Amino acid sequence: MDGFNEFIESITTVIWADWVLYTVLAVGLLFTLWSGICQWRALTHGVAVTAGRYDNPDDPGAISHFQALSAALSATVGLGNIGGVAIAIAIGGPGAVFWMWVVGIVGMALKTTEVAQSMLFRDTDDPDNPHGGPMFVAHRGFKKWNAGGLGWAIGALFCLTLLISAATGGNMFQAWNVGDITREAMDLPKWITGVILAVIVATVIIGGIKRIGSVASVLVPFMCVLYVLIALAVLVLNLGAIPDVIGLIFKSAFSPSEAGGAFLGGSAGYAFLWGMKRALFSSEAGQGSSPIAHSAAQTKEPISESVVAGLEPFIDTMVVCTLTALVILCTGALERGDGLDGADGQFASNVPVTMQDDTWTVGTPTEFTIDGETVMMGRTELPERTEHGVLMGGEWHNGDNVFTIAEGGDVNEDTSSNRVMMSGNVILPEEPDSPPYVRWKTVSVDHGSVSSWVTLAEQGHAPELVEPLLYEDYVGATFTAYAINRQFPGIGTWLILVASWLFAISTMISWSYYGEQGVVYLFGNMAVPFYKIVYCLLIVVATLPIVSTTSEIGNLSDLGTGIMLWVNIPIMLIFGFIAMKAYHSYFRRLRDGEIKPRNQQ
Predict the structure, then answer these.
(1) How many distinct helices (H) and strands (E) make up the chain?
(2) Contact at 8 Å (CB) between 377 and 395?
(3) Average pLDDT by consecutive 10-residue portion of the chain (601 residues)?
């Protein structure tokens, strides 16, 4: 798995180069100005359209504006809001939140534009089952310019990226997170969670977009209200900390975040990178996925639905993601508190960090046989959990991911510190007389200290633990649950467990539809049943012991999000003038009274 993870990481490094993020921001700013600040239109006229004031039952389409928004939101308001935000803050620091907000604002313009294009080029030959999305924009748009073959090829390329994203971020990321937090709360093997999720998702997606829209219109409002109430309860009890946290977010967006406790630290550039990536993953702005759901909306005015779509990033990022971020930062979950507060145990003070070649490990280097291969890893005794640790995560479970913090060598440009996270796994041997222990992974320290570690050792500055503390590695949604547990000990895990199941199911059913439309475009309706079977099987695969750490699951979701941006952003730019012409025409007719609410028609 390490080799696979390194391969995915090498791809995402290219996909998520800084210039790609700058390009996405620039395109969002372009359409913000070109549309005359469409964000305001979304928050005013978009709300009226969503409420049904302009609905006409005779218009072509399968679902209402509200159902279309709910279906799209069910894909975006998911574990990216709970788990993705937690990953961004845990790695990028508080400054990542600021860049989430930036993406949320420009994302409203991106979403408005891409949905406008899809609505203008959607296929309504079957009014009760319309098809749309960037693939139809490319195919039909280029066909008007007598380049239908090129358009189909670009559409096919988008569909391939769509299917990868549906399988990874829209499916496996969700299932993995639910499996992890269910294991944490109930000590239930992840694969059982995977099977249950697969059955639930299969039951819904069999009914197509109408059933998905119907389920989403009930599920999305309920889960959003539930989560908002949970977050607000925590924040009300931490009102005094909010001003300082807001200040820290702005400060850390442009200067390094200081390391502390369990946090490695983060440079301003790292905060920008992770804030952008996780916000784009959560809101899907510029990805081209949401237009597929909106294209099923019942309307004869394409722009009316695009304005509704502009509400998505506001709800997803500016509201739900912000609440998650504030909960994590206000409760001190990022640093895990001082001393033993939040730490899961204390080593003996003489636990060493050992070096060999270009790697570090914790404890005594020991040979282990894993999957038939002999590897050298560190080993230490497993300390007892503190009372606080038991409240946060229960008793130790076999396979629990843990870490400790070491320091030494040169400063890492990503974290702006010389700290390194040393990861390991809890091992509870089946033999009754064998004591539990931690098996530590080796870490390649190649951020500048590799070439000088021998000198450091000779000078007596070998790496060492910052503090002899052991932390459980709360990943994604479990990290948010940990934050709530700090406020309501023993309760947060169960609250987030329920929310995670709801969020994940809603996301997976909508993304199944997105992938289905890609399959229809590429292979026709005959391939849909096979696609649905594979989609549900991947839910189970994601809960098998294949990925286990923050970086692995983060890389998996980044792959799908990134490659869709690479295809969809050029499509948006090529046909942007068509969308903006229709956008301004619509609001001119609205001002002139040609478009009226239903009760005035």
Answers:
(1) 25, 11
(2) no
(3) 70 81 90 95 93 84 84 74 80 89 92 95 82 93 92 93 86 84 82 93 81 75 82 91 93 85 80 78 82 90 93 90 91 69 59 76 83 84 80 79 82 80 89 88 63 38 75 80 83 79 85 91 91 94 69 64 87 95 95 80 59
